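hiii, so i know i said id send this last week but things got crazy w the move. better late than never?? heres the sequnce for the chain we talked about at the cafe, plus the structure i predicted for it. fair warning i was half asleep when i ran it
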Amino acid sequence: MNKVLTIIRKEYLERVRSKSFLIGTLLGPALMSLFIVLPMLLAETGTDDQRTIGVIDLDGSQFEKLNEILVDRGDDPVNLLLINSEGRSPEVCVDEMKNMILNESIHSGMVIPKDFVESRKLTFYNKSVSSLVTLDSSLRPAMNRLLREERFALKQVPDSLYTYLAARTDWTAISVDASGAEEKQDETVSFAMAFVLIMIIYIMVIMYGSHTLTAVIEEKSSRMAEVMLASVSPGNLMLGKVLGIGMAGLTQFGIWAVAFFFLSQQGVSVGEFTLDVGFLTPMILSSFVLFFLLGFFLYATLYAGIGAMCNTVQDSQQFHTPVAMGMVLPMLLLSLILRAPDSTLSVVLSLVPLFSPVLMFMRVCVETPPLWQIGLSWALMIFSIWLASRMAGKLFRMGILMYGASPTWGTLIKVLRS
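okay and structure toks below
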């Protein structure tokens, strides 16, 4: 046991004393938060380029109304330019507008026909597909509103009645726990916090699992493993490496957790996103820690076995990528969990041990599943870790002292069956 502790101490100190650990600890949260904070900042600063839209108003009465609606909606990046159509044929006006689009004096253009109120038909001219973003986000809703107002005016509907009929619903989200207690919920903050925690699990498991792989390969390449195996068994060597690197990951996470708690107490916010520890219920917090630990040990054990079979990092790529897909695929399936967290497909996928750290934890954050499902996922992951450790132990014992030709999938399967 003392020898295992020595290996754990060596692996732990090697990582926490490195510059990469310091840089990752300082910059890791900043890089991960960019996925949430940067879009919010861009949305608030309104960095969209000013876009001039040419308008041919054949009726002559819609341009000013459309402009007022855009101002009322706050569509600042959209600037309307009236193309004179008085005494000119529509074809000539359209040709002029096309030339203006081609020489980039305007971004795009639209034609409002005389019978717009009855026909509802509009024509939009553009040079690139990106213009359709402006059409969908600004022009389409503004013209829909203009059509409604014109039709209400045509039928002589009073303004007060129009205001009454055009009113929109005002929603308040209430979260209900198992005891029936109610709590006001901010969906944006809840989703953002869940996504940040999932990103931490994803990045930490992949990163420290890869550290285990490279650490084993480096010691094997430098023949340091031969020296260590003279005084410790292959199984204990693998165990010491996995635990030492795992403790380094927990240390980094602990630093982040303390910093996060401190910032949340100071009321730090970015735009509409506020750091709020209220989201971290006991269930979410305990699930996060367990899924992080179980996910790390599962992947680190697999990586340790793979590393023992390989002579260089390049050799390991053919095995590294398929294992890493166990974390990548769940990230691609998050939208499925968000839409239907209790569907049969969501339940089955979240119980797959390689997927559970991401998918089951996402279900816990979105809508806490039955406790038996959470417990079953933990049990399946523990069993998978036991199974992976047996497989990795065999690979480690057989491969740590093997040198020469690059390993193949056939070699790996042959060692496992031996």
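btw The radius of gyration is 30 Å. thought thatd interest u
miss u guys!!
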